[in-house]
Amino acid sequence: MSVASLHSLVTSANDPARVDTAALPLLQGLTGLIPEGGLRRGSTVAVEGTTSLALALLAGPAQAGSWCAVVGAPELGLLAAAEYGIALDRLALIPQPGQAWASVVAALVDAFDVVAIRPAGPVPPGLASRLTARLRKHGGVLVSLGPWEGADLRLTAVDERWDGLDQGHGRLRARQVRVRVGGRRGVAIAPRDEWVWLPAPGGGVAPAPARVRVLEAV
User: Fold this and answer.
1) Would you put residue 203 in left (φ > 0), alpha (ψ -120 to 50) or beta?
2) Are 73 and 11 found together in one domain?
3) pTM as predicted
4) How many domains does the chain fold into?
């Protein structure tokens, strides 16, 4: 992207409406996944195995007034973002950042509350440390679509079950995803699994009750 376009995005995001809280809010259906019930400013989150969960993480902050950006993920479009409730007027998509990937991400981290990225390859430790330092300084949250060394929080989709098919017929209407939660927040987080509807039968995101999981497992 051009320098002028990047400058315009950063200028737009630096507005008085920027959310100023210790943790950015989540959609209600995701609060059970995150130990603190929100995305802690200055933290890194690695999401593996599902891009839908990454979009759902952006929806809560965007609805509350935060600016969000997605870098290096051309398959994620405006329609998919809207389906998870992301406010499109506060979302910037940079599908092909090119060779300036690191510079683009660094500039966005300085101004945006949440920046989701898909690195083209392994991120050098030095670059990761510099981005983490900028996150802490400016209070943003970095969501990596894939592994991130030393991530404060790791959310990994380890299983899924679709709802809607009956003996090979019907339409896929909803999906349950088992998410493994781990990472570190000063101390290691003991891994645990949580089931969520992603999407729920009526759309959006919701926790999957234990009784539903038992019935579908039979």
Assistant:
1) left
2) yes
3) 0.83
4) 2
| Structure tokens, 8 | 């315009």
Nearest to 109 by CA among 86, 153, 145, 141: 141
**How far are the Cα atoms of 25, 108, 160, 209 from residue 166, in angstroms, in the given order?**
37, 46, 17, 21
Residues comprising the chain, all counted:
218
Mention every residue, 6+ apart, whose C-beta is less than 8 A from residue 171: 164, 165
Q: Which residues pair with 174 in a beta bridge?
A: 163
The per-residue pLDDT for range 23-37, each reduced to its tens digit, is 899 999 898 888 788
54 & 147 share domain: yes
Residues 31, 50 within the same domain: yes
Task: Give the 3-state secondary structure of residue 211.
Answer: helix
Helix (H, G, I), strand (E, B) or coil at 149: coil
Look up the domain containing 99 and give its range: 3-153
The 10 Å CB-count burial string (b at 16+, else e) for 68-83 is: bbbbbbeebeeeebee
101-148 confidence digits (pLDDT tens) = 889 999 999 999 999 999 877 888 899 999 999 999 999 999 999 999
The DSSP annotation for 50-70 comes to -HHHHHHHHHHHHHTT--EEE
Cα 179 to Cα 18, 22, 50, 168: the distances in Å are 30, 25, 9, 26
Residue 188 corresponds to which amino acid? A
Together in a domain, 115 and 198 = no
Do 73 and 135 sit in the same domain of this protein?
A: yes
